[in-house]
Amino acid sequence: MTGLYTLLQINQLNNTAENYFPIGVQIIFAIGFVATMIGLSALVGPKRKTSDKLENFSSGIASHGNARQPMAVKYFLIAILFVLFDVEVIFFYPYAVNFKFLGWAGFWEIVLFVVLFLIGFIYIIKKGALQWED
Amino acid sequence: MNVIQVLFWILSAMALVSALMVLLSKNPVHSVLWLVAVFFAISGHYILLNAQFIAIVNLIVYAGAIMVLFLFVIMLMNLNKDTEPQKNIWMKLAGAISAGCLLMILVSLIKQAPELQAKTAMMNEGGIGLIANLGKALFNTYVVPFEISSILFLSAMVGAVVIGKKD
């Protein structure tokens, strides 16, 4: 356990932007791999463009109507509530890293934070904002 | 030119080109995707400045969650071609002039600010952007704004429910 703790401290001392080099390589590799594969399949793959083949369909049924229809606002409500709780979780990361350093004072601070969120959550549940069927 | 400078120029070019494409693309969904590219470039800048926490938060919250909200807003609107309003040429001219004035003011302010003269950003040094130091500052010095932010979230929840829910 102490070995793990010192490892964490050493890691924090040498925490520079160079540590992100493997992540950068991985992102470049991922983008390059996907781009190469899509490009290759577009170049090498057989293409026979007839009017029947280029028609839009889903499960063998030709599409009808317009896809550009305004959608229900309840999707947006769920999404905006998701973003709020997403940001709440973001605030837990700095607390979790300093969990031992902050002690009980930090614990009560985060409890107050979570209680205020919990009040909002109870309000959301009571109002039925997460109920899908009207 | 060392590696960090090369990376800085690449990321700056990426951010500027993507930001221009946000404005220039005709399809609003493409604009949103270009905005995601802008956020990735800005996250790269944050990592160069050794502000690692804000780089990751920028990716998770802005490129992830906020852009989903943008997509939802775009799809809530009616995007058919014939309903798109044609903007007046005078409106475009007025917009260009006012935006140009704002740009001039910003550039002259930055050039005159004594704090910024002959200074460059600290690339890859300083530890305040690391998550451990940031947490110490957040939970000791800035604990009151931190708790107030939770009240802000509470009001955002209530506002979203009040506006989005009929009854």
Automatic annotation (TrEMBL), chain A:
<feature type="transmembrane region" description="Helical">
    <location>
        <begin position="75"/>
        <end position="95"/>
    </location>
</feature>
<keyword id="KW-0874">Quinone</keyword>
<keyword id="KW-0472">Membrane</keyword>
<feature type="transmembrane region" description="Helical">
    <location>
        <begin position="101"/>
        <end position="125"/>
    </location>
</feature>
<keyword id="KW-0520">NAD</keyword>
<feature type="transmembrane region" description="Helical">
    <location>
        <begin position="20"/>
        <end position="44"/>
    </location>
</feature>
<dbReference type="GO" id="GO:0030964">
    <property type="term" value="C:NADH dehydrogenase complex"/>
</dbReference>
<comment type="function">
    <text>NDH-1 shuttles electrons from NADH, via FMN and iron-sulfur (Fe-S) centers, to quinones in the respiratory chain. The immediate electron acceptor for the enzyme in this species is believed to be a menaquinone. Couples the redox reaction to proton translocation (for every two electrons transferred, four hydrogen ions are translocated across the cytoplasmic membrane), and thus conserves the redox energy in a proton gradient.</text>
</comment>
<dbReference type="GO" id="GO:0008137">
    <property type="term" value="F:NADH dehydrogenase (ubiquinone) activity"/>
</dbReference>
<keyword id="KW-1133">Transmembrane helix</keyword>
<dbReference type="GO" id="GO:0005886">
    <property type="term" value="C:plasma membrane"/>
</dbReference>
<dbReference type="InterPro" id="IPR023043">
    <property type="entry name" value="NAD(P)H_OxRDtase_bac/plastid"/>
</dbReference>
<keyword id="KW-1003">Cell membrane</keyword>
<dbReference type="InterPro" id="IPR038430">
    <property type="entry name" value="NDAH_ubi_oxred_su3_sf"/>
</dbReference>
<protein>
    <recommendedName>
        <fullName>NADH-quinone oxidoreductase subunit A</fullName>
        <ecNumber>7.1.1.-</ecNumber>
    </recommendedName>
</protein>
<keyword id="KW-0813">Transport</keyword>
<dbReference type="InterPro" id="IPR000440">
    <property type="entry name" value="NADH_UbQ/plastoQ_OxRdtase_su3"/>
</dbReference>
<keyword id="KW-1278">Translocase</keyword>
<dbReference type="GO" id="GO:0050136">
    <property type="term" value="F:NADH dehydrogenase (quinone) (non-electrogenic) activity"/>
</dbReference>
<comment type="subunit">
    <text>NDH-1 is composed of 14 different subunits. Subunits NuoA, H, J, K, L, M, N constitute the membrane sector of the complex.</text>
</comment>
<comment type="similarity">
    <text>Belongs to the complex I subunit 3 family.</text>
</comment>
<keyword id="KW-0812">Transmembrane</keyword>
UniProtKB/TrEMBL annotation, chain B:
<keyword id="KW-0472">Membrane</keyword>
<dbReference type="InterPro" id="IPR042106">
    <property type="entry name" value="Nuo/plastoQ_OxRdtase_6_NuoJ"/>
</dbReference>
<keyword id="KW-0812">Transmembrane</keyword>
<feature type="transmembrane region" description="Helical">
    <location>
        <begin position="89"/>
        <end position="110"/>
    </location>
</feature>
<dbReference type="InterPro" id="IPR001457">
    <property type="entry name" value="NADH_UbQ/plastoQ_OxRdtase_su6"/>
</dbReference>
<keyword id="KW-0520">NAD</keyword>
<dbReference type="GO" id="GO:0005886">
    <property type="term" value="C:plasma membrane"/>
</dbReference>
<feature type="transmembrane region" description="Helical">
    <location>
        <begin position="6"/>
        <end position="24"/>
    </location>
</feature>
<feature type="transmembrane region" description="Helical">
    <location>
        <begin position="142"/>
        <end position="163"/>
    </location>
</feature>
<feature type="transmembrane region" description="Helical">
    <location>
        <begin position="31"/>
        <end position="48"/>
    </location>
</feature>
<dbReference type="GO" id="GO:0008137">
    <property type="term" value="F:NADH dehydrogenase (ubiquinone) activity"/>
</dbReference>
<comment type="similarity">
    <text>Belongs to the complex I subunit 6 family.</text>
</comment>
<feature type="transmembrane region" description="Helical">
    <location>
        <begin position="54"/>
        <end position="77"/>
    </location>
</feature>
<keyword id="KW-1133">Transmembrane helix</keyword>
<keyword id="KW-0874">Quinone</keyword>
<comment type="function">
    <text>NDH-1 shuttles electrons from NADH, via FMN and iron-sulfur (Fe-S) centers, to quinones in the respiratory chain. Couples the redox reaction to proton translocation (for every two electrons transferred, four hydrogen ions are translocated across the cytoplasmic membrane), and thus conserves the redox energy in a proton gradient.</text>
</comment>
<dbReference type="GO" id="GO:0048038">
    <property type="term" value="F:quinone binding"/>
</dbReference>
<dbReference type="Pfam" id="PF00499">
    <property type="entry name" value="Oxidored_q3"/>
</dbReference>
<protein>
    <recommendedName>
        <fullName>NADH-quinone oxidoreductase subunit J</fullName>
        <ecNumber>7.1.1.-</ecNumber>
    </recommendedName>
</protein>
<keyword id="KW-1003">Cell membrane</keyword>
